Amino acid sequence: ENVMNINLATLPLPVYANTSARAQRRLRIGNLNPDRHAERSFLRVVERLEPDSMPPSFDSIASAARQLNQIFANKHRAPCIQMRLRCLAAMKAMSQDSGWALQEDQRQPIRWIADYATGKHRLVPDHVPVIGGLDDAILVDIAWPSLSFELDDFLSFRRLRAKEAQLRGLHPRKFGFTREDWLHARAAEAALLQRARRRVGYCYGATPAPALFRFHG
User: Fold this and answer.
1) Pick from 125, 131, 21: which is nearest to 81 by CA?
2) Cα 37 to chain center, whole Å?
3) How far is residue 39's CA from residue 35's CA, in Å, rounded to a whole number?
4) Quick check: is 143 in a domain?
5) Which residue, among 71, 54, 69, has the nearest Cα to 16 in the 3D structure?
6) Is 44 helix (H, G, I), strand (E, B) or coil?
7) Which of 127, 176, 210, 213 has CA atoms 20 to 30 A from the CA of 202?
């Protein structure tokens, strides 16, 4: 649930924007030489996610990998990649949760990324130290603007479902809780908080503060 307040813009990957047409194309990403199948597989997902934009160049992805390897050489995986993989896991949970009933046009991008991430042809497989999953992280970055608000709502839904299930002594997965129920529960929770604030304000305002000093004529 810690994904809830994440803004990926505050955890940027090294710049992977397209380099100029004159730039020397690097053939290696870290210590890897991605094959054509991996390149095509990655570009296919990018084009589906952002059909009207230019995809990041492989030269710039290689530059990002090199920079990450330099900065996080002593880590199993770069934190900025790890954070995005956690976001992907939350997205997959959202797309598979029957209670949330995600619309198909939002489920499809998650499916594209998840299928690529578990596929045979990958630019940077997960087992690669430091930069493993860099390709998945880039795909999450591309999809994030269209899914971040939905994911934030879904995590709120899971929190309220867990709370309601606990009150009834049930496991959250066995508790029939829908998006409609979440909307009602969230409205009730907001009303309760508003009443509590009013009550506190009334208590403070109704009792006059004692005088600190008393002046005698």
Assistant:
1) 131
2) 27
3) 6
4) yes
5) 54
6) helix
7) 213
- Say if 11 falls within a structural domain: yes
For 97, the token pair is 């949760």
- Report CA dihedral (113, 84, 50, 158) to the nearest 10 degrees: 70
**What is the spatial distance between Cα 10 and Cα 48, in angstroms, rounded to a whole number?**
25
pLDDT tens column, 57-115: 888 898 889 999 999 998 999 999 999 999 999 999 999 999 999 999 999 999 999 99
pLDDT bracket for residue 216 (50, 70, 90): very low
Specify the pLDDT at position 204.
55
| 217 found inside a domain | no
The residue segments making up the domain with residue 10 are 2-149
How big is the chain, counted in residues?
217
Identity of residue 212: L
What distance in Å separates the CA atoms of residue 173 and residue 99, rounded to the nearest whole number? 9
- pLDDT at site 10: 64
Q: Give start and end residues of each alpha helix (H) in the chain.
A: 36-49, 58-71, 79-96, 104-117, 134-167, 179-206
Q: Is the separation of the CB atoms in 41 and 116 below 8 Å?
A: yes
Query: What tokens appear for 158 in the block?
Result: 């899971």
Q: Is-contact 186 156, C-beta < 8 A?
A: yes
State the total domains in the chain.
Answer: 1
Q: Is the dihedral of CA 173, 151, 108, 139 positive or negative?
A: negative
Reported as type and span, the H/E element at residue 96 is helix 79-96
The pLDDT > 70 percentage for the chain reads: 81
> Does any domain span residue 168?
no
Q: Is the pLDDT higher at 164 or at 201?
A: 164
